[in-house]
Amino acid sequence: MKKLYLLLSLLLIATMLFTACQTADVTDDTDTTEADTSEETDTEEDAAVEEEPEEEAESEEPAEEEEAEEVAQDEEVEEDTTEVETPVSYQEAPMLTEMVNAGELPPIEERLPEVPFLVGPGTLIVEEDLPNWESGQYGGELQMAHRGDFPPDVFIGSNEGYLAGPGIGVADIVGNIFESFEVSDDATVFTFHMRKGLKWSDGEPVVREDVEFAWFDVLNNEEINPGGVPGKWRDKATDNPLVLEFVDDWTFTLTFETAYGSLLREMAISGWVGYTDLVKPAHYLKQYHKDYADEAELLAAIEEEGYEGLDAWVNLFGQKEVGNWEAHLEDAIGYPRLYPWILVEMTEGALIYERNPYYYKVDIEGKQLPYIDRIVTARVDDVEMVNVRAIAGQVDFTRESPDVQQLPVYKEQEEAGNYTAGIYSSHVAPMSLMLNHVSTNEAWNEVINDVRFRQAMNYAIDRDEVIQTFYFGLATPAPWVPSEYSVEKANDLLDEMGMTERDADGFRKTPSGQELTFYITSAKYLAEHDTIAQLTVEYFAEIGLHAIFETISSDLLNERREAGDINMWALWAVSPMWVNGTWTDWTPDTPEWARYMNENDELEGVEPPAEAQRLWEITDERAAAVTGGAEDMALYEETVENYLANIWKIIYVEGINPLIISNDLQNIPVSGQAIAANYSMEQFWLTRGE
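-> structure tokens emitted (690 positions)
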């Protein structure tokens, strides 16, 4: 079998020069294969949070005079000469003008906040990654496609956070849903200024009540959240919840007992959490909340949805309250949002979104965003169909689904499909093996918790072969695990463990003499997962390990993972690619360990070893440290060293992410993080628009 892969590799060599020359970026004139700017952007400044008002002033947003006075805190700040003036008048899409003329909408001046978010060069995507930004034309329908029920590209492209980090960076975080903010010198008190005049998609104003309701009546409601408020809103040293206080109707503070230097990062981009946990449409949700709703009406609503009794109001509220990860489900239709497009229809074959007439962003020419009228994303059975549609010119943009192995095919069909295929740097490792250390497989548990076993598996991976065979020589080994390929070292480690006895098929038994068979499970999140996993089965066989490859649905994988009925599974890895990320990807992928470390979890779990527990501790310590500061970077380096020593997951490569983009689609970044390409779809526009 391995010879088959080697033959495949030889066959693909003929395409490598062609590919390497023509897939550097989506414009074919800028080399982006090494253009991962996230780490540089995230770490080039120690960027103490005390400097945030400066960063606010340097954004392309309109600045108030009092904000300008706050800029100089601990160092001199040069006057910002790049700032643009607030437009004196505003424009809207023709479809909205028609609605205004028909009396269905108020005039645009009444729909926008007092100070809209001003979009221009460098505001949403850093200028070096999008050097040719231009004010777009209105109209058109953005065609997309997705596998299953969840449209990842629409989700990322329309998600909104409290704050914004240009190009998903953290060095220049500015206001977004909240207009601006200040941070105390000790990073314990965060002051936020709400955007006056901001409106929900149904036209109702976003007001103080929406924050207070979210905090006091939802997050702190024991019936809705029996485990208490999420960890993001807790002090990292004491685990006590923050204190929220309003200074006036438009200004509030979040106060922690100890330093929480990374809160701004958490509120901007970390985990794509969006704004939905701390800002909720109280005017809509109170009708489903026991403390506010008319009891008879609430009971009727409960029964209408198939629940029984007034106590089921929590179930009803949970159904009606739509978080950002649920914005693309049927219950989101009619739910007030702050996104550029709002889900308006769900059919068996597609999700349909229309522009939000109350969206709060305008460009430097005064045009209300988004430029594109509608998004229609087709629901298909598998990821291959997304790419089939893209090649046929039926998809304008896809980042999540393209198969890097099909890159030559994408390039060959560019002209016919009216698109450009390219390679971007990535914030993810496209192929990783997540290791479960506490499973229902006793033989597996015996060996996986010996670091020598994990080291042996890692040594068995021929990354150069993977890179040449599957990634056309364009990827590089991931630096978070040793990349050396050595069957000899792998065998020596297994022998040293005492795995010298073999079964009738020549596969190693555990040190205690148990026969060992384990599974590499794939839900085919990316096309290459299956093929690389199958090759990995052969790698493991060369060192006497009996692995079996299996493919299951994503739902079943998640179910089995939580039940411990899984050994390892193929997935991308996120945080190790993102120096300033605080996602739990840095912690080992073992649910039982996570339950033990999560004090709010009802299940007790299993205590991890000290070196694994240290990763949870680092996560909390990095949360307290100033993002990008010396302490934060020291903790990051400790994390990397911990990974290198312990091999908590097997990461293959980094630095490669194919995109397929219609030639009709404009304001697409030419470099930078791949996910940044659709991080701000409100600035996309179509040349085939109206």
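The first strand starts at residue 117 and ends at 119.
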